[in-house]
Write a structure and sequence with these properties.
With about 300 residues, the chain is α/β, with parallel strands linked by helices. The protein has a domain of about 190 residues: TIM Barrel (Alpha-Beta Barrel). The chain is about 40% helix and about 15% strand. It is built from eleven helices and ten strands. Strands 3-4-5-6-7-8-9-10 form an eight-stranded parallel beta sheet. Strands 1-2 form a two-stranded antiparallel ribbon. Helix 1 packs parallel to helix 2, helix 3 packs across helix 4 and helix 8 crosses helix 9. The N and C termini lie far apart (about 40 Å). The relative contact order is 0.14. The model has no long low-confidence stretch (mean pLDDT about 95). This is Aldo-keto reductase. Keywords: NADP, Oxidoreductase. GO terms for molecular function: oxidoreductase activity, acting on the CH-OH group of donors, NAD or NADP as acceptor. Belongs to the aldo/keto reductase family. It comes from Loigolactobacillus rennini DSM 20253.
Length: about 300
């Protein structure tokens, strides 16, 4: 029997266009190019098939190198993987999105994408950006298109001006920030929720309630959180550059959280976002010295 038998890494969910997407993958935010190459290659070696990056992360070249290594070293084909990246805020707009899509493919050393997302709903541009994504989808350059960091209001506006319903909305989602209203709305519209920062950073990982559950199930805190996400029906992409954690993050199919324990975690929700519209300089409501949206650079 395969060592991946009964692994979440073999599980997929069917998106609203019929495409099958893995339920768990590797995220690479705040990962330098060299680290990204190694972590992606190692993740693929250990059974991961979903890899998520973005131009803003500044590591698409490293991710592309890791994908190439992972395919060659493990006897895989490109079609065995599910690769996601996102339209950079500074590239949004119809023509600019199409132009920079080609550059993204070059960085990743790919001929197509499995999923292309609008990273943030940039004021006065995200509708035109979506039209460009619809063209890329119709032209067969991407297998699915979606959005990221879209609240209900922005999603409603997009749906009113779109021909294609987004397949995904990638949101910050974790025990501290469960986005219950957005999750409910996406489920209503047939848009799959996907979690960035699924482990919730230090506050969730050090939460005494989750630690208690980890002891009860003889699992790590991260495994409890990822199991919670799975049972909530949310695709997850935890980030790690450590092989042992990459492997451990996938070992969540040998236990199930009880209804009572799920309810206990749901009560931890504070609606506490680490980043939102007000943090970005491209948004009209930004504050002085706000986080500047720029491609991160790494040695």
């Amino acid at each position: 029997m395969s060592k991946l038998a009964n692994s979440i890494l073999q599980e997929t969910t069917k998106l609203n266009n019929g495409v099958l997407m893995p339920k768990l993958g590797l995220g690479v935010w705040k990962t330098a190019n060299e680290q990204a190459e190694e972590s992606v290659a190692q993740a693929i070696k250990h059974g991961y098939r979903l890899i998520d990056t973005a131009k803003q992360y500044g590591n698409q070249a490293g991710v592309g190198a890791g994908i190439k290594r992972g395919i060659l070293e493990n006897g895989l084909n490109r079609k065995d993987l599910f690769i996601t990246t996102k339209v950079f805020n500074g590239d949004q707009g119809y023509d600019s999105t199409l132009r920079n899509f080609e550059k993204t493919l070059q960085k990743l050393q790919l001929s197509y994408l499995d999923l292309y997302l609008i990273h943030w709903p940039v004021d006065n541009k995200y509708i035109d950006t979506w039209k460009a994504l619809e063209k890329l989808y119709r032209d067969g350059r991407v297998r699915a298109i979606g959005i990221s960091n879209f609240d209900i209001e922005h999603t409603k506006t997009l749906l009113a001006h779109s021909d294609i319903t987004p397949a995904i909305n990638q949101m910050e989602f974790n025990p501290i920030n469960q986005e219950k209203d957005i999750l409910s709305y996406m489920n209503l519209k047939g848009i799959q929720m996907e979690a960035w920062s699924p482990l919730g950073g230090g506050e969730a990982l050090s939460n005494p309630t989750i630690k208690k559950l980890a002891t009860k199930y003889n699992k790590s805190v991260a495994q409890i959180i990822l199991r919670f996400d799975k049972q909530m029906g949310v695709i997850t992409i935890p980030k790690s550059t450590h092989v042992e954690r990459i492997v451990a993050n996938s070992q969540i199919n040998d236990f199930t959280l009880t209804t009572e324990d799920m309810a206990t975690i749901k009560q931890l929700d504070k609606g506490q976002r680490s980043l939102w519209y007000k943090d970005f300089a491209w948004h009209a409501g930004h504050k002085p010295n706000a986080y500047v949206d720029a491609v991160q650079t790494w040695d």
